[in-house]
Design a protein that fits this description.
Elements: H1 3-59, H2 71-77, H3 80-90, H4 93-114, H5 122-148
Helix pairs in contact: 1-3, 1-4, 1-5, 3-4, 4-5
Length: 149
């Protein structure tokens, strides 16, 4: 047997093993990235759905001055805080902070509604627009986070 044949076989075997390892590692990274994206997407959708449900329920609330400042109870009943806690576990801090601002904007909207401000009043419209603006900022940040993963 020639040494060159043995050497070529050994080099070929080593190269084949290395190529297989590199391919498996690339597949593992891609699969992990897809799982992370799915976890984020699920948390994002859950939070946005809870926040929208609370905001929509608040828009139909009857004026009740004694409930001003008690929106945190109502928002908790819609699962917003639970969904926000899930976000805190999987999302980066800047996104969590934006979500907190969105929650506070919906709480301000709640207070405007239960304070008795009419839907065409400046207070109502200002609170509604702020809630919508913070929600859009949050959605934009969520899109960026999903592209990063």
């Amino acid at each position: 047997m020639q040494w060159s044949t043995l050497g070529a076989t050994a080099v070929g075997t080593v190269l084949g093993v290395l190529a297989t390892l590199l391919t498996d590692q690339a597949r593992w990274r891609r699969d992990r990235s897809e799982r992370e994206r799915d976890v984020l997407r699920t948390a994002f959708v859950g939070y946005l759905a809870a926040l929208s449900a609370a905001r929509d329920a608040f828009s139909r609330a009857e004026p009740s001055p004694e409930r001003v400042g008690k929106g945190h109870v109502a928002i908790g009943e819609h699962g917003v805080y639970a969904a926000q806690q899930q976000l805190e576990l999987v999302a980066h801090q800047a996104l969590v902070d934006t979500a907190a601002r969105a929650t506070l904007a919906v709480l301000d909207f709640h207070d405007a509604v239960v304070a008795g401000h009419a839907p065409n009043s400046c207070q109502y419209m200002g609170a509604w627009r702020a809630a919508r603006r913070t929600r859009m900022a949050l959605i934009n940040e969520m899109r960026i986070a999903l592209r990063r993963v």
